[in-house]
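User: Modeling request: complex.
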Amino acid sequence: MYRGREGQWAFLLHRISGVAIALYLLLHVLDISLVMLGPDGPFDAFLAFYHNWPFRIGLLMVIAAVVYHALNGLRIILMDFTTWGVKIQRQLWYGVLVLTTLIGIPVLWVVVPQILAGV
Amino acid sequence: MASARPRTYAEAREVSTTNFELAWWVFMRVSGLILVFLVFGHLWVNNILVDPADIDYAYVVNRLAQPGVRIYNTFLLFFAMLHGVNGLRYSIEDYTKRASRRFWYKVILYTVSAIIFVLGTMTLWAFTYEEMGAAVRAIGVTP
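Assistant: Request completed. Predicted assembly structure:
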């Protein structure tokens, strides 16, 4: 890794989360489109399979990726369209990490009991 | 292509003939801002208000019967697909060194994405293959 400090970690995480979300999106649209095969089609069985806890934890990671990607995207917009954004990009990135955690805690509070109820 | 590959900003500027990449650069920021609201709303409804484990065929039928949900999801699908596929394109451009491989990866990406985009739009607006068939016949195209 090049010694790019925070800015480069922000970029790398943005890339990884972005690719993960995009691949999830393609899969998600594809599996929802299975409803077109009707109530007797494979839709319910397929979704029941997705409701197993390993996939629910995977879904939690997708949510975390979305929250980080969204907040860091806002940081990029500030960096590109304001005169002061680049100057404080490092502080903004720590703000992104703190906000991601702050949003993550109540999400876990709701979702973890959902997952445990299904185990 | 390989022989005249631009090495500096000035060389790249000379090779470039369109503002294609600038347009995508702007699109990523505008669609990104819109998607923050659309995606957070989507996650709020389907992951927080509703336990995803309760989502089944009946739930999806009920939701997609509402015109507002259809319109919301149409915007979500449109912006998310363009933003996501363009992001995947950036990754291909950045990490695939051979131009021929880069080309074929993009052909595969665009083909798969186009099929999935059409399937998603059909799900939102036709819902079943029967409805889609009826709609296609209604406009006078016989398959």
